[in-house]
Amino acid sequence: MRSFFKPVAMGAALLSVTGCGGTDVQNGMTLDLALITARARPISGAAGARELMNDQGTHAVFTSGFVTLGSVELLPCAEVGWKRFLRQLSPVGTAWAHHTATNPLRMDVPQVVSLGSADGTVIPLGTLRPAPGRYCHARLTFEPAGDDAQGLGAAAQGNAPVDMVGRSLHLRGTLSTGQDGEPQPFEVSFQTRASVDVLLEWVTLSEAEPHAQLVFALSWDTWLDGVSAEQPPANVDLVANVARSVVPPSSAAP
Known about the structure:
Elements: E1 14-18, E2 30-38, E3 51-53, E4 59-76, H1 82-89, E5 106-107, E6 111-114, E7 123-128, E8 133-142, H2 152-155, E9 169-176, E10 184-190, E11 194-205, E12 211-219, H3 238-244, E13 246-247, E14 250-252
Parallel strand pairs: 1-14, 2-12
Antiparallel strand pairs: 1-12, 2-7, 3-4, 4-5, 4-6, 4-8, 4-9, 8-11, 9-10, 12-13
């Protein structure tokens, strides 16, 4: 069982609730969403910025990496229990509706996230305008990018451009097994989908506290878990690894 701990970069991943801001409370509540990358495991100080050791003892270095976050959905506390179960049984309006503009609890602007930025760099995802209330979970879905995804241009630049349209994950780098293993290049793409529900620490929006921010972290150094000499990256569900790597936001007073 993987044990996640908050990395140093998680200092930037805070949930801050404040009553100030430029939005008139009569226009509703606002919840800003953002993302950072961070490590989940300690590593030698001599290691490179995107160097890792996975749970199988496989050593890896990412030379580039892109993942598509398709949506973020805010779940009211009541949705965590039986009401959410009944809603999922309904054949109408399921949680997998893509790019809907009518759900104030769902951010449907796909974002291609690059590993090219330093850990802790905040990547804005968008703003939700939910009704006042208490929210206990958020659902993040990773899925293939459409041609409307943000970040496609950045992925298509550089010495080794990647077209992320139709891709949920693309990784390139080197792998080596054992202490004296020779690094071998690898490149892998996925078109699969994975979701994760993460716990929020009682996010409450009200007239007294109409604005909040959620910053999630992706623990990129766990994305290759399960990869070994016997299990190359293409044989492991790396998109599911990405979903499991999401670290819930912390909470702190502003």
